[in-house]
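Subject: mismatched residue count in predicted assembly?

I count 497 residues in my input, but I want to confirm that the predicted structure covers every chain. Input:
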Amino acid sequence: MRYVAIGCCLLTLIGCKRERRDVRPSPAVSGILGDAAGESTLRPGGGAATQNVRNPYEGNAYAISEGQRLFNWYNCSGCHANGGGGIGPPLIKKDQRDWIYGGDPSNIFDTIVKGRPNGMPMWGGKIPEYQIWQIVTYVRSLNNLEPKAATPSRPDSLEQKTNTILYGKDGGSQP
Amino acid sequence: MNQSMWHASGSNAAHIRELAIFFGILLGVIFLIVVGLALFSLRRRHRGIEQEPLERSHQASERTEARLRMVVGIATAVTLLILFGLTIVSVSVGKSVSASVAPANSLLIEVTGTQWWWKIRYASDDPSRILRTANEIHIPVGRPITIRGSADDVIHSFWVPSLQGKRDLIPGRTTLEWLQADRPGEYRGQCAEFCGLQHAHMAFWVIAEPPAQFNQWMEHQLQPAVEPADDETKQGQNIFLNSACVLCHAIRGTDAGAHAGPDLTHFGSRKTIAAGTLPNNKGNLAGWIADPQNVKPGTHMATVPIQPAEMQPLIDYLESLK
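Triage response: the counts match. Full output below for your records.
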């Protein structure tokens, strides 16, 4: 019995990663700005292979909450509202096929860094890289693309894709 | 001296100091009496116990019962009376320092607490005379100041011990109070409600000046920022406007107009940086910009990638904004 209890206590440690705070992020600019997704593999004259960029904050609850704060600080909400869209397209997608430029972390990162046609500004060089990744994590959490353990069940804006409310319990794509 | 309720420099703080002295003396005397009685009863040989052993059959005599009832009754009545009296005194002082009696010709200053600094806005009917600044409040001596407080994120508390009592700043609510400085001086204030990681580094200064000097300060602060005078500061301005700084800070007279962070229009004229954390000088500023998390772990100031060669022009420019 005692060992079961100790085991249960130790099991809770698994959850620590979710809360890890990267409070001293490196401000360094990596070479990936602008092509994190490696959209083209064709490199004239050979050269470096495609980089494999992954979101350093995946599944991190602190990054999601920081991303939510920055989403308003940098006025993303000015065009995208709380994810429902306005002047800009909604960031809460009905269907994963609705991502115009892809919904992978590296795609969203590229979208923020490079900007996109018809109005999305280019934020690269302005918003520090680690904060862009925090915003990426937040945008993905709006679509339940982050682990459930890290995603807030009741976000401040109350606009979030939840299978039970918007799409029926089966999580299907019928509105 | 700068931050002490015992060195009251205004009528509100004086009321609070008197209240504290009254409470302290009255309750101190009561404490001494209670402790004295306790010691007395410990030392006193209790004849009653010798005569009447405490057994199941033990019954206090009629006389003891009556005396006991009287003593407990009087003690309860006196306690109630004292507590009631203290309540009345406390409420009346609270009423006399509350905003409902703020004099009519007061200057209105809006204070918004945010993690972890203070947004200051001097209100005016004339839009060109509305002034935004941060972490430093200049006030004219002898004129009542109305503070309209609110908060952006969590509950903070506005407290300048030498001038007034604590007033909570609550998100989505407006709180009012007033203060007045009776003599010139620099008074330190601090957040008095735990508000997160950097609660302890959320300070500000209230600088009370003679009215003429205050007006001069006000006129100067209303001006847009000074233009860069030389190439170095000109380069610094460019760096500021083309990096992440511009996303959060405003410098009137330039393209920088964001209000997520403190307004830096007259940054060089302030005493401190990072909400009273460090004295405002070039060395501290460079350290703060290069690694804010080292100075204030958890701060929302972004770690901005500034190249080493860019740092000197940038801090020269910011310090030139007198």
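The interface with chain B takes residues 23-29, 69, 73-74, 125-131 of chain A (CB under 8 Å). Marking this ticket as 'not a bug'.
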